[in-house]
Amino acid sequence: MSDEVIPQGLWTGDYFNEGSGRDGIFDKLKEECGVFGVFGHPDAASMSYYGLHALQHRGEESAGLCVTNGGDFNYHRGMGLVKEVFDKDRLASLIGDRSIGHVRYSTSGDSKLTNAQPLVFKYRDGDLAVATNGNIVNAPKIRRELEQSGSIFQTTSDTEVIAHLIARSSKDFVEAAKDALQQIVGGYAFLLMTNDRMLVASDPNGLRPISMARLGDAYLFSSETCAFETIGAEIIRDIEPGEMLVLDKNGLHEDRFAEPQRKALCAMEYIYFARPDSELNGSNLHSSRKRMGRRMAQESFVDADVVTGVPDSSISAAIGYAEQTGIPYELGLIKNKYTGRTFIQPSQELREQGVKMKLSAVRRVVEGMRVVMIDDSIVRGTTSRRIVNLLREAGATEVHVRITSPPFKNPCFYGIDTPDSRELIASSKSIEEIRKEINADSLEFISPEGLIEAVAGNNVNDYKGGLCMACFDNDYPTRTDFNGEEQFGCSC
């Protein structure tokens, strides 16, 4: 059954979650999405609720859960945060021992309830629910072919493509899913559930993260390991590229739908997206970001009085920079966590100085000081300029900007909402030109080699440390051009 309600009175005017993501007025890359699955726990809905809450940073537009005990599906989806979509009574009505859940930030699909996941369908073998994080690059081509042969799509989400491919197959569910996955190209982590089975799949390059854990006899799956820590589950391992896990009444079966290709986990997961208490490839994100900061200090030291990081993703790197240089780390910038998605449309004056609604410079810390400002990336440059000016207005005598990613020059096809390459400042301006644009005294980016050495860990011998660096160097791990219909952003 379904009972979907759009909460009333939570948004005003143009701020109805229209792709604003976590940082709204900030010129930041937007999160992808987050998936969480449970198989074999009597309170699967509650486990998934806590898991999705831990993944909230990956998507703030909508949340959803689909639960079953082997019979009919119970599901609920809504616009807003996990805590807004689900309350105690709602969770109590979602009875079952297996579930898949999703938090969404839309990029390629519209921001509306019909696109909220998990997507749920009726097909010849019963019910099918699908949740994904990532992007299907050739989805427009497949969708057009399916529509020409009679398929009717209910959403604008490209995730629906996989359901149609499965439904059209005459094979059993597992083999149909394999065939469907072999037809799509991109970066993705899928959770698929029928009345009696659950499938977990990772793309052949491992572009989008997904991991497995145990809690008693139950298996859990998550876009980030921080969700496992929340509920006390024991992390087992990452799902391997091209791997497909099948869970049914007989337990867990390891299978694969494709041979692993060049390993290429999204570098921006390390730099920005993942929570600092998560692990990627066995490496803690906080530690990895501290190593980025240390490497940044080795590559581009500048004499200064204080080091500060732009909250929240750059704090770890700023600590690493400070430790390497001996320059004190200080909280020079404070983030207001409560302006979020629901604030009333500001006046024109506040709009022009909108960064002040999200960040405040601590005058007593930066006044009269030479400041090193650590940030994770520069997209269009507008936010960096605002933050530099914020520090100057608070009395900083110098502001030196250090970025823990290489210059962001190219769009992402695998699940990150990036602007057209013409809007990416690094695609058309030199580092010196960007420095002038953001009003900094100096500007340096970490080198690609430095980034790889800081985060690759056990994958240091893999090509580019097992990272996708295409947004920096234009070296995409998959084909991206399908008759000129490249699909940007996140297909979920």
Automatic annotation (TrEMBL):
Mg(2+) binds at residues 313, 375-376. Keywords: 4Fe-4S, Glutamine amidotransferase, Glycosyltransferase, Iron, Iron-sulfur, Magnesium, Metal-binding, Purine biosynthesis, Transferase. It holds the Pfam family Pribosyltran. It catalyses: 5-phospho-beta-D-ribosylamine + L-glutamate + diphosphate = 5-phospho-alpha-D-ribose 1-diphosphate + L-glutamine + H2O. Pathway: Purine metabolism; IMP biosynthesis via de novo pathway; N(1)-(5-phospho-D-ribosyl)glycinamide from 5-phospho-alpha-D-ribose 1-diphosphate: step 1/2. PROSITE patterns: GATASE_TYPE_2. Residues 33-250 form the Glutamine amidotransferase type-2 domain. Its EC number is 2.4.2.14. One of its GO terms (molecular function) is amidophosphoribosyltransferase activity. The active site is at residue 33. Binds 1 [4Fe-4S] cluster per subunit. Binds 1 Mg(2+) ion per subunit. [4Fe-4S] cluster binds at residues 266, 412, 468, 471. It comes from the Bacteria. GO terms for biological process: 'de novo' IMP biosynthetic process; purine nucleobase biosynthetic process. It is an enzyme of class 2 (transferase). Its cofactor is [4Fe-4S] cluster; Mg(2+). Catalyzes the formation of phosphoribosylamine from phosphoribosylpyrophosphate (PRPP) and glutamine. In the C-terminal section; belongs to the purine/pyrimidine phosphoribosyltransferase family. PANTHER family: AMIDOPHOSPHORIBOSYLTRANSFERASE. This is Amidophosphoribosyltransferase. The gene is purF.
